[in-house]
Automatic annotation (TrEMBL):
It is a single-pass type I membrane protein. The keyword Magnesium does not apply. It comes from Helianthus annuus (Common sunflower). One of its GO terms (cellular component) is plasma membrane. It is found in: Membrane. This is Putative leucine-rich repeat protein, plant-type. It holds the Pfam family PK_Tyr_Ser-Thr.
């Protein structure tokens, strides 16, 4: 304190000497405040205040921006959010009259000043969205008047101090998105004014305070994504004022309290991904405001209570992956606002509820993986705007009704794994919007394929495998222009496979087990019945041979390396894995890999599945961890090093789509390009899927751009960056040439080998994930935030121009060394908008580029400006204005050639 005063005086004198000309006469107020504010403006480089104070001779700080005074001219409120500020804040604590301090959305870092604990009048403190680290200062316990405390989105660690029990007036307490650990202290439960408590996305553990909500009128409780244990305290609902409850992704156990029925205003309950047991209380029907109920991935059981039907505002009901049994209550048809009903992965049976299907607002019904029997009702799409009809893996019987053709809004139709009989109704061809998948596999369908299927020109995935379909594959199917993934296997189809790119690019397993089928990609030649047909075959064989040839080249060089490794290995070690790939591999102690394969013939002997699995069990092997997967380094006994991607097991759909995934991987493993990471193989056990790739020692482009430069100082490396950009563009151009669209282009999915040659990865991942899952859906379908093309919002389709856009974002990252989304750009502004907004902000292109690179030489600067032009073309808002990927490659190569 004493030091503080001295320091303060120092400033006072300093300012007297330098600013002696200022005219001080505030009626009340405090001249000390003036000097403090000027000193702060200097420290924080806050031009607004310097401008008024120094240039305009305006000593009346009460009229300065960001400041509000009380009637006695004492500073009462300072709002400095979104100013890109940093610096030492300690001085602020000398403005003792402060009641309201908002420093959110800046780049303050280091510890939160303890001296804030001396601002005894403070009622509102918002330090959110900064980079403060260390722990929450216990000095805050002195802020007896504090009502609003927001420390969210910082880098805070340690536990929530028990000393803060003095904050008795606290009303809003927000500390989400930090790294806080330990348990939630009891004093939080004793607060009598608490209305809002958010601590989600931390590392909190232990039980919630038993009294949480008991003494207060809690309205919002959001603690998702922590490690909380124990049961949900009854008291949370005690006051009946709760409106939003989010506890998703914790380790909560016990049953869901029936006191929930008291909360008439509760509109959102999200308790998914926990270990909750028991029934859903019938009192749920008392929640007339309930709009959102999500309890998937728990161990809830019993019947689905019909009281839900009383919640007339219910919009989403997700009970997937629990132990529910019984039927779907027919009264569910009364929920006229219901848009999504998701009950997959339970033990439900009975008929598909027609009353629910007749609901006009229903958008998605997911009954898959249950025991629903009965047939598909003819009234299936009489009135609804259904986009997702997911009935796979049930016990449905009867025929697919012709009325299925009324479902014109459908994006996805899953009927696989049932006992459906009859023929495929030609009316399916009327579902012109069908895009994501049409799956009729594993049924008892017979008869010929209706040529009308060819009208489905947006459809990406078609699976008719494992039925008793007969006749030939109609030439009309060539109308399915968007197809990537087809499966006709295990039917009785006959005749030549039509010469159609999506068919020819499929693995032969897509057509296998049809005695009568012939032609590429099968190994059986067709009898020469039709000259044109066989000519086509010759052409495609030629291209295929070229492709296979270049693959062989790659394989050969790999082989040599592998053989060298193998020579060092003992024979027995090799014998262990040989020939076991396609069947169960049982280890001595416990069964590990249920299913696995290595696509690259010459690597088969070098890969040991058990070693792969064991590597993923050790944290020390972890390379990186993302939303959907964790990547490990795995050393094989043969000496080979692999990168193993473990898909997060919560996504059980991966297992449901196992065969599809395997075919997809097989197909991708045939891609040959220097700048693409191909899958080498896979292994599946329990509910875990592991994908094998080559190991790349230099990590991702994102790390190269955004992390390694921070760690090891800065290396001006424009030529390296330009060649990375060209390599990525070449890899993508190759994919587009094969009509393959990448679903998740980002710098995090581009990897660098030891020579900094880029390899585009994650070619396979997005397709394997269920696009319908909660908030992840957008990134699962369309890529990572900041890279998603603007048109995706209304088309919901990733296209080649969309890929060009995402590449443009990567190129901007390379040019600016900035992340695609950054709070510094301001609210709602991403890298693209920030760059596009440069002219309006009066900034030149040079101010956008990473100055550490562009100032190295004139020629670097010139090249960077040319590359910036390319990036701007790629990120054009209108997809049609963006260049093709091939053209992008040419433009980037020109930059090098014009040196
Ligand atoms: C501020 O006041 C000083 C002294 O009175 C004067 O010299 C100066 O021109 C003034 N500046 C402005 C911008 O009015
Ligand atoms: C901030 O300034 C105060 C004096 O105003 C000083 O005591 C403190 O050490 C400074 N903090 C940092 C992190 O530089
Ligand atoms: C921080 O929390 C306070 C109190 O709940 C709230 O008023 C404020 O808007 C929050 N700040 C941000 C940036 O969300
Ligand atoms: C909370 O309240 C209970 C009962 O009123 C009391 O026994 C306990 O000491 C309080 N705990 C804290 C940390 O204030
Ligand atoms: C709450 O629900 C229960 C069980 O459904 C019912 O018996 C009770 O009458 C309801 N209470 C109110 C106030 O609606
Ligand atoms: C149902 O939702 C509508 C629209 O959001 C709202 O106006 C109405 O108050 C809600 N009904 C209840 C009982 O909360
Ligand atoms: C789920 O509940 C059933 C019985 O209700 C129990 O047998 C099973 O062990 C539980 N599973 C988990 C993972 O808790
Ligand atoms: C469906 O299954 C239930 C329960 O096993 C059975 O009672 C019912 O008769 C079945 N319905 C049909 C149409 O097979």
């Amino acid at each position: 304190m004493k030091k503080m005063v001295n320091f303060h005086h120092f400033w006072w004198w300093f300012l007297i000497l330098t600013l002696g000309f200022l005219d001080f006469h505030l009626i009340n107020g405090d001249n000390d405040d003036l000097f403090t504010l000027l000193a702060i403006s200097k420290e924080l480089k806050l031009d607004d205040w310097n401008q008024d104070g120094l240039k305009n001779n305006n000593s009346n700080y009460c009229s300065w921006p960001h400041i509000t005074c009380n009637s006695n001219n004492f500073v009462e409120k300072i709002v400095l959010s979104h100013q890109s500020l940093q610096g030492n804040l300690t001085l602020l604590s000398t403005i003792k009259s402060l009641k309201w301090l908002d420093l959110s959305f800046n780049t303050f870092h280091g510890l939160i000043p303890q001296s804030f604990g001396t601002l005894f009048d403070l009622e509102f403190l918002d330090l959110s969205y900064n980079k403060f680290d260390g722990s929450i200062p216990i000095e805050f316990s002195n802020l007896k008047n504090l009502k609003f405390l927001n420390l969210s989105n910082n880098l805070l660690m340690g536990s929530i101090p028990s000393e803060l029990e003095g904050l008795v007036k606290l009303q809003d307490f927000q500390i989400y998105a930090n790294s806080l650990s330990g348990s939630i202290p009891d004093w939080v439960g004793n607060l009598t004014n608490l209305r809002v408590f958010t601590a989600y996305e931390n590392e909190l553990s232990g039980k919630m305070p038993e009294t949480l909500g008991a003494f207060s009128e809690l309205q919002l409780l959001n603690l998702h994504s922590n490690y909380l244990e124990g049961s949900i305290p009854q008291n949370v609902f005690a006051n009946g004022k709760l409106e939003v409850l989010v506890l998703t992704q914790n380790k909560l156990t016990g049953s869901f309290p029936d006191s929930v029925g008291k909360c008439k205003r509760l509109s959102s309950i999200r308790i998914g991904n926990n270990g909750l047991i028991g029934n859903i209380p019938r009192e749920i029907g008392n929640l007339s405001s309930l709009a959102y109920f999500e309890a998937d991935n728990n161990n809830l059981s019993g019947e689905i209570v019909q009281e839900f039907a009383q919640c007339s505002n219910l919009t989403l009901l997700n009970l997937a992956s629990n132990g529910f049994s019984g039927i779907i209550p027919p009264v569910f048809g009364e929920m006229i606002n219901l848009q999504e009903l998701i009950v997959s992965g339970n033990s439900l049976f009975g008929e598909i509820p027609t009353s629910v299907l007749s609901n006009k607002n229903l958008n998605k019904i997911d009954l898959s993986n249950n025991r629903f029997n009965g047939s598909i009702p003819r009234s299936v799409c009489n009135s609804s705007r259904l986009q997702y009809l997911l009935l796979g893996q049930n016990s449905l019987t009867g025929e697919i009704p012709n009325e299925i053709g009324n479902c014109v809004k459908l994006l996805e139709l899953q009927l696989g794994g049932n006992y459906l009989t009859g023929t495929i109704p030609p009316e399916i061809g009327r579902i012109k919007n069908l895009q994501i998948a049409l799956n009729l596999s594993f049924n008892h369908l017979h008869g010929r394929l209706p040529p009308d299927l060819g009208k489905l020109d947006k459809l990406v995935s078609l699976d008719l495998s494992n039925n008793q379909l007969t006749g030939d594959i109609p030439l009309a199917l060539k109308g399915m222009l968007s197809l990537i993934d087809v499966n006709f296997a295990n039917n009785h189809l006959t005749g030549p496979i039509p010469a159609f790119a999506p068919f020819q690019k499929s693995p032969n397993s897509s057509f296998s087990k049809n005695e009568g089928l012939c032609g590429y990609p099968l190994n059986t030649f067709c009898e020469n019945s039709n000259g044109i047909q066989s000519f086509h075959h010759k052409v495609s064989y030629k291209t295929v041979l070229v492709v296979i040839g270049s693959c062989l080249l790659v394989f050969t060089s790999v082989t040599i390396v592998v053989v060298l490794f193998m020579m060092r290995e003992k024979q027995e070690q090799m014998a262990k894995t040989v020939g076991k790939q396609d069947e169960e591999v049982i280890d001595d102690d416990k069964p590990l890999v249920i299913l696995g394969n290595v696509f690259v013939e010459n690597l088969k002997q070098a890969i040991d599945f058990n070693a792969v699995v064991k590597a993923t069990l050790k944290d020390s092997n972890k390379i990186s961890s993302g939303t959907f997967s964790t990547i490990y380094k795995a050393e094989m006994p043969s000496g080979l090093t692999l990168s193993v991607k473990r898909l997060k097991s919560v996504d059980k759909t991966i297992l449901h789509h196992q065969n599809k995934m395997i075919r997809e991987l097989e197909r991708l493993s045939h891609l040959c390009h220097d700048n693409l990471i191909r899958p080498i193989g896979f292994a599946i056990y329990d509910d875990v899927a592991l994908l094998l790739h080559q190991f790349l020692p230099n990590g991702s482009l994102a790390r190269f751009l955004h992390e390694s430069s921070k760690e090891h100082g800065y290396k001006p490396d424009w030529p390296v960056r330009l060649s990375i950009a060209i390599g990525v563009a070449e890899g993508l151009a190759y994919l587009h040439q094969l009509a393959i669209i990448h679903l998740d282009i980002s710098s995090g999915n581009i990897f660098l080998d030891s020579d900094f040659k880029p390899l585009v990865g994650e070619i396979e991942i997005s397709k394997l994930l269920d696009p319908s899952r909660g908030t992840a859906s957008i990134s699962a379908v369309a890529g990572s935030f900041g890279y998603i093309p603007p048109e995706y919002a209304y088309t919901m389709q990733v296209t080649a121009p969309g890929n060009v856009y995402s590449f443009g974002v990567v190129l901007l990252e390379i040019l600016t060394t900035r992340a695609p989304v950054d709070e510094e750009f301001g609210e709602g502004v991403d890298l693209v908008k920030w760059v596009q907004g440069a002219p309006t902000r009066g900034e030149t292109p040079e101010q956008i580029l990473d100055a550490k690179l562009s100032t190295v030489s004139f020629s670097w600067r010139k090249e960077m400006l040319s590359a910036l032009k390319v990036a701007l073309l790629c990120t054009e808002t209108t997809p049609a204005k963006r260049p093709k990927m091939k053209k992008v490659v040419e433009m980037l190569q020109e930059i090098i050639e014009n040196k």
